[in-house]
Amino acid sequence: MRYWLIGTFCLLLSACATQTTVSNSPRNFDTVEAAKTRISLGLTYLENGNYNQAKANLDKAMEYAPRLGDSHFALAHYYQTVSDFGMAEKYYQQAFDLDPNNPNLQNSYGAFLCQKGDYNQAEKYLLKAANSERYSSTAETYENLAICSHSQARINQAIEYLETALQHQPGRGKSWYMLIELFLSKGQYGDAKDAFRQYEKLVPVTADTLSMAIEIEEGLGNDKVAQGYQAMLEQLYPDKINLPRRQLLAPVSRENSQLDSTVELVNSNVQTHILQKGENLYRLAIKYGVRIQWLIDWNNIDDVSNLSVGQELIVSDPNL
């Protein structure tokens, strides 16, 4: 799952296959190492949006080492990126046939299943990865579990997964940010403030952090403290005072971007989004740089678990 996911594609190249020889190649030509090099090139091209070169290099890797699990893993990631889920599923399964206990593969496949809305199976694979003794990205996987839980409106479970992620990696700013947003969505301003104290140790003062602090203190009824943060915001970022608050948030990273969905402008100010399968308010909040609570307020949502595919949601401030 690409921050939202949650889940970024984490590829640890391992020689999990028997080395083969390509005809007409030099005697000492190492096909597995050549395949790994092609995979690295292909994924770099893919990250930069050069799909033709990405596919060409990944195909070459498959030609060099068709029994290397990572050759199939990389192609699964490619097809997932270009939204060909059928081919992605095919290559994921082929990768599992060759390397069934690879925790990086389990993490990525779990994120893929969550993206498709197969939450129970997604959780199964993500937990396998998180519990692997030879896995170094446990915190990232618990973030993916949190996102998957939130997709099912299991907010408390999502919070628990984020807290577990932070036990494994206390300096993970992304997890703190997500945790604060979930506390704010539940109106747990005290918990949000505790988490914010940890978060602000990791990041510099920005318009975003000041905006978040204002929201927390207002929620706690600490008007004077909130006014102090407001004054600081006006002093440090005077050019952003009159901007919609959604523009004060950190930009969405490519690794966390959701797949493109239908978006239209109703008028010059109000933007809407047609809810797709596997999407939820948390994903939309990240995609459009807004708070979950704003989406709830703008759309008069009483039950966040009762959203339906095809539902049109307002994703920008209708009062602007």
Task: Give a verbal description of the structure.
It is a single chain. This protein is mainly alpha-helical and 320 residues long. It has three domains: 31-171, Alpha Horseshoe (Serine Threonine Protein Phosphatase 5, Tetratricopeptide repeat), CATH 1.25.40.10; 207-245; 258-314, Roll (Membrane-bound Lytic Murein Transglycosylase D, Chain A), CATH 3.10.350.10. 56% of the residues lie in helices and 3% in strands. The chain is built from 14 helices and three strands. It has helices at 31-47, 51-64, 69-81, 85-98, 103-116, 119-130, 138-151, 155-168, 173-185, 189-199, 207-220, 223-236, 281-288, 292-298; strands at 263-265, 271-274, 312-314. The protein has a three-stranded antiparallel sheet, with no helix packed on it. The protein is elongated and about 75 Å long. The protein starts with 30 loop residues before the first helix and ends in a 6-residue tail after the last strand. Mean pLDDT is 80; it is low at 1-23 and 244-268.
